[in-house]
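Why do we bother with holo predictions? Because pocket geometry can differ from the apo form. Keep that in mind while you read this record for adenosine monophosphate.
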Amino acid sequence: MRVAVYCGSGMGKNPIYAEKATELGTVLAQNGYGIVYGGSKIGLMGKVADAVLTAGGEVVGVMPTHLQMREIAHPSLTEIHFVESMHIRKAKMVDFSDAFIVLPGGGGTMDEYFEVFTWAQIGLHEKPVILYNINGFYDLLLQHFDRMIEEGFIRTDQKSLIRVAMTAEDILKFIK
Ligand code: AMP
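The structure, written out:
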């Protein structure tokens, strides 16, 4: 089983983000899960990938050729797929994965999160999408989700699609 990991190409200011990214990679590999991710060695994504590889797990990278220079492809992945566009990257990452985990990140991470979240909303897949709320990073987004529900823009019965994990163990429970 493989899970897609979406997270920042930056490391974040607080060292807790990198610590928790490393811990997550280790826990996933120790429990037999491989990961699918953007294929880069930079930022939090590089941390998760390194930890999975160190713990003997499988890591599949999917990188658009035009990002190869900017994001620096990780040299020791189990598999790396070079693709023509961001759209193909995102579609392949969804196809290759059985669940999605979203760590802290910026606009790219949010784009990836909202794509798989909204695809679940309209029934295009039934795979769990999990926000890993390290250091309360997503508290304001979760408040905004409450507002979207209160104001009638997300249906109450779709609230269950917003899965939030506070620890790596919570994530394992969701994906098991
Ligand atoms: P960020 O969260 O902005 O650091 O980006 C994290 C990952 O999302 C990186 O691997 C980027 O290649 C990817 N990314 C950046 N911009 C976009 C975008 N517009 N659509 C999809 N993915 C993106």
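The radius of gyration is 15 Å.
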